[in-house]
Amino acid sequence: MRKKLIAAGLIAGMLSLAVAGCGKNSNYTTKVELRDDPVKSSTDYAGGSGNATDENASKSDGKENSDSLKIGFVQTANESGWRAAHTKSMEETFSDTSKYTYTFVDGQADQAVQIKGIQKFIDEGYDAIIVAPIVVSGWDDILKKAKDAGIPVIIVDRQVDSDESLYSCWVGSDFDTEGKNAAEWLVKELGTSEPKNIVVLEGTPDASATLGRTKGFNDVISQYGNYTILASESADFDKAKGKELMNKYLSQFPSIDVIVTQNDNMAYGVIEALTEKGANIENYTIISFDGEAEAFKLMVDGKIDLDVECNPLQGPTVEKLLQDLLAGKSVDKTQFMEEGVYPASSAKDEVANRKY
Ligand code: AHR
To answer: How many H helices and E strands in the chain?
Structure first.
């Protein structure tokens, strides 16, 4: 117990230093009092609706340790297996209740809800805020409020277009490179002479994951005259919408060679659509992103040809950054996760290693 208190004291000391460094008022021992506002919260990252009320906003253990650091995480939503793994990674990282009081807010795919969640953490004097922004723009005001309150903000997963001075750092994937890697593999695989028709299922509009993957892919593919992108539309990173969009593409375009789905969830919808139509899946080159275990199984079965990894296990990196920030150390503004590119030929050996 004494050991725990010393550890908490050490963290508190580090915090005061950081606070001094960035002009923050130190109130890390303030009790969390969840107010009756409309922010919805949930820990149900395993596929639930995320519709618990704010009154029981999900803290790490349902009670508070007044010596712990109050960490608030505002997630985008619960739209995919990737997202579930991302939420779980944060929850596991901040599960030590002797060090952290961790509160999770489900943004319900709504930027306004996300902003409310951040505001709540500011109002309640949280020690640090982690935000997974659903879209790129519209964060300046709330980030400025957090900065003025001296609360470090770590942006995770998708990027924002705010000035870098408004947040502490960002941890996530190099979406542009992911898109490029997909296109480079495709060009190697299908060559540069035979005409090939591509349809793309994009993610959420204005999300940096969508923008980056689209740009990276298009930048490479546009250099080769034998590739035509027939259509590139959003299915919101969602399985059901992916299926619907694939059905639309199938009725619209008689000759499709390549299907690019910007996440595994949409790939599952695409495969369902093709299967229900009685199409021969082997006739299509299917490229996906994320690298979920389920998608690896589909690669083993010959249904997906390439999966470009997007690493959701960001919790430990975020914790390390937080400790550095609170200790007053400077950190790199941009932190890319390590990620691989997996063609179907590698899936059999890799499938057992997948962690999400
Ligand atoms: O921002 C990361 C993307 O968001 C993942 O590719 C996707 O599965 C999630 O919904």
So the answer is: 11, 13
How do strand 100-106 and strand 58-59 relate by DSSP bridges?
antiparallel
96 CA to middle of ligand 1, Å? 27
Q: What is the pLDDT of residues 68-109, one digit of tens each?
A: 999 999 999 999 999 999 999 999 999 999 999 999 999 999
Taking only the tens place, the pLDDT of each residue in 135-156 is 999 999 999 999 999 999 999 9
Q: Which of 30-55 are b and which e, b meaning 16 or more Cβ less than 10 Å from the residue's Cβ?
A: eebebeeeebbbbbbbeeeebebebe
310 lines ligand 1 (CB under 6 A): yes
CA torsion 210→215→178→231, rounded to 10°?
A: 70
> Which residues face 290 on adjacent strands?
309
**What's the CA-to-centroid distance between 242 and ligand 1, angstroms?**
14
* Any atom of ligand 1 within 6 Å of the Cβ of 158: yes
Is the beta carbon of 263 within 6 A of some atom in ligand 1?
yes
Structure token pair of residue 117: 């969640």
Burial of 236 (0-12, 13-18, 19+ CB in 10 A): buried
Distance 207 CA to ligand 1 centre (A): 9
pTM: 0.85
Determine the Cα–Cα distance for residues 256 and 229; give it in Å rounded to an integer.
Answer: 10
Burial code (b: 16+ CB inside 10 Å, e: under 16) for 83-100 equals bbbbbbbbbebbebbebb
Tokens at residue 58, please? 């999900």
